[in-house]
Amino acid sequence: MKSLCIVFLVLLAVPCFAADLSGNWVVRDPLPDGTFRTTYVDLHQEGSRITGTIRVTQFYFKIVESTGGSEGFTLTGSMMDGTNERRVKYEGKLVGDQLHVATRRRPDTELIQMVARRAPPGEGAYPARLPLPAIHRVADNGLAKTPPMGWNSWNKFAGRVDDPAVRAMADAMASNGMKEAGYQYINIDDTWEAGRDAQGNITTNKKFPDMKALADYVHGKGLKIGIYSSPGPNTCAGYEGSYGHEQQDAKTYAAWGIDYLKYDWCGARNLYTDQEMRALYQVMGDALLETGRPILYSLCQYGRAEVWKWGANVGGNAWRTTGDIRDTWDSMTTIGFSQDELAPWATPGHWNDPDMLEIGNGGMNNDEYKTHMSLWSILAAPLLAGNDLRNTTPAILEILTNREVIAVNQDKDGNQGRRIAKSGDQEVWARSLSDGALAIALFNRSGTLAKISVKWSDLGLKSPPAHLRDLWAHSDLKLDGAEYSVAVPAHGVVLLRAAK
Ligand code: GLA
């Protein structure tokens, strides 16, 4: 091949280098919301060695291994996500002046075929790293004196959320008893963004034609509205982030009438380490305060870098403590029952957030959803419903709006509950309430009915409480002796309120 090429070169001066893979290649997949999912493959070929980068919106891989050449090649890209390495593999070949490439989203999913075309050098390059500000303490915004309550689009709608859906959720919340029970925020998660206009202002995509009008609509229902962004150039779903535009975006949110921001790390991981998160979250904390509008600030960085130790100092009202929840018993309990040691960090205005509710999404039964609601209430966690509020069944609505359980969640002292006892799959958790009462949860994590007992002495009580109430049965209980025993359904809970 080599000698042939030389012959061609000598005889015809044919551009042999056309077969060189070097160049910036782009695949632009249009999405129904008018935005594009773009993949840039920026290659540099030297003989049989291919180096360069692969950028798929928020994923930015450096090519660390390659085989082959223009007739057929493979590339392995690597990127760091905190301390975890992510790898991606591409295979492809040059066909005319197009690069035919294929990859899998996950090792077990089908091969996605793409045709990349040449793009100008530098297009799609990952932005340069901006300097970080000196660390300081952002003033408290005075919001979220009790854990935020509302709804968020992600768990049910993910990328399908749009203006009509958000209006419908506001309609439902305002009329189905949730608003009266304390739910307040209607939060739009990722995928509302388009890009930036000539002045650098963030713009909405086709799904959200007029964010100000939507905010007015939600406010008109007596509710508040939330939005989502990232400190990185892109969000987790690959949409436009606030990187380098933090003040401008905060002003835009305020002008639209936004009351809540969820700020999600994802896209920033290519530029900054976990240890630098605090500075980036501080930038937006300052920017929100400077708007003068009360905007609740919710940090989402999956509990990395011990966020509970600094979340309040960047102006955060809540910070995620874990990875994403799914609508399964395993996911919900793995997250919920791992929060015990974080209790000291919850205070009025600043909450640990074990992620949003899955209640009503169909992956768990009603006993399991009662466990979800009870645990999140004992934990003083934000209560952000994640189901389609238009068709909430009466049973699910009863779980979401149980006032006695919500009163535990919203207790003004904000003491996050703790695990008091554990025996196999049975756990007792308790939370002290502002009037001196105790909320006590008896959890049965096993798959069969189990008797659970709680000794008053284990709860620090010298004598049996004068009043004991079952918050799911809405009934007062009789006390007998030094302990209380009850049969708890499989994956179920008995939630009690004990008062002197
Ligand atoms: C991350 C967050 C989720 C959701 C998605 C949106 O995974 O943890 O809660 O916001 O991003 O892309």
Summarize this, please?
With 500 residues, this protein is α+β, with helices and mostly antiparallel strands. It is built from 11 helices and 26 strands.
Summary tags:
500 residues, 26 strands, alpha+beta, 11 helices, binds alpha-D-galactopyranose, 32% strand, eight-stranded antiparallel β-barrel, 21% helix, eight-stranded parallel sheet
Topology (SSEs and partners):
Layout: H1 2-12, E1 23-30, E2 36-46, E3 49-56, E4 59-69, E5 72-81, E6 84-95, E7 98-104, E8 111-119, E9 149-152, H2 154-157, H3 163-175, H4 178-181, E10 185-187, E11 193-196, E12 202-204, H5 211-220, E13 224-229, H6 246-256, E14 260-264, H7 277-291, E15 296-300, E16 318-320, H8 329-336, E17 351-353, H9 366-378, E18 383-385, H10 394-400, H11 403-409, E19 418-423, E20 426-432, E21 438-444, E22 450-455, E23 467-470, E24 475-476, E25 483-488, E26 493-499
Parallel strand pairs: 9-10, 9-18, 10-13, 13-14, 14-15, 15-16, 16-17
Antiparallel strand pairs: 1-2, 1-8, 2-3, 3-4, 4-5, 5-6, 6-7, 7-8, 11-12, 19-20, 20-21, 21-26, 22-25, 23-24, 23-26
Helix pairs in contact: 3-5, 6-7, 8-9, 9-10, 9-11
The structure holds alpha-D-galactopyranose.
